Amino acid sequence: MTEVSSLTGRLLVATPALADPNFDRAVVLLLDHDDEGSLGVVLNRPTPVDVGDILESWAPLAGEPGVVFQGGPVALDAALALAVVPGDGPAPHAGPDGSRPRTPPAEAEAGEAGDGDGTALLGAGPLGWRRVHGAIGLVDLEAPPELLAAALGSLRIFAGYAGWGPGQLEDELSEGAWFVVDSEPGDVSSPRPEALWRDVLRRQRSELAMIATYPDDPSLN
After folding, report:
1. I want to staple 83 with a disulfide (CB 3.0 to 4.6 A). Which of 4, 6, 152, 189 is the partner?
2. Are 18 and 33 in contact (CB under 8 A)?
């Protein structure tokens, strides 16, 4: 199989041509991308469910809006968490074989503390946090919140995630379904998720900035 250049830590921004309603105007942070497939979370799909309703002990650390976000159409009964460690350094290299975990390691059944043993999230940074890219990392929902409270920026909880099989994302990219752009730590905890699609495009130093003005209803263009 042809080696895939990893897009882990970058954003997929849905193009106006993407017809799948699950990803209309979606901004997806890729948590894992290699020749075995891809996994990410949609950053701009807030739900009406308060974090305190399913993970009460983590609610004080959740950024505004303090609700659960729908991370994608896969495993909606499971939760994972992302948080930024302010001032943290660059991401470490992958393992000797270049592999990364396929299953979201911070995944937990919604309404429960978690189902992992916590060891998968140990690494550079605070205990209970595993770096994805730069200052962005996955949070072990089994860890005591007070263990992480002093180190973390705003926490975001996601129900479900987005997944692609081997070569599937590459096919969608070749079909023009997604723009691929760099992420910024603030994207994870944007207080205005409804504006994130336009905000990410607007900051691009290319013709992509013009796409931000594309109307929600193309017939109005």
Report:
1. 152
2. no
Backbone dihedral angles phi then psi of residue 62, each to the nearest 5 degrees: -75, 135
Give the C-alpha separation, 19 to 22, whole Å.
9
**3 phi and psi, to 5 degrees?**
-65, 135
Model's pTM, two decimal places?
Answer: 0.81
Q: Are 155 and 81 in contact (CB under 8 A)?
A: yes
Residues 6+ apart with CB under 8 A from 204: 181
- Rounded Cα distance, 77 and 75, in Å: 5
- Burial class for 98, CB neighbours closer than 10 Å (0-12, 13-18, 19+): exposed
pLDDT in tens, 188-202: 999 999 999 999 999
Q: How far apart are CA 46 and CA 44, in angstroms?
A: 6
Contact present, 14 and 46 (Cβ < 8 Å) = no
Alpha-carbon distances, residue 150 vs 45, 145, 146, 154 (angstroms): 27, 9, 8, 11
Please state, in angstroms and rounded to a whole number, the distance separating the CA atoms of residues 27 and 43: 6
Phi and psi at residue 153, to the nearest 5°:
-80, -160
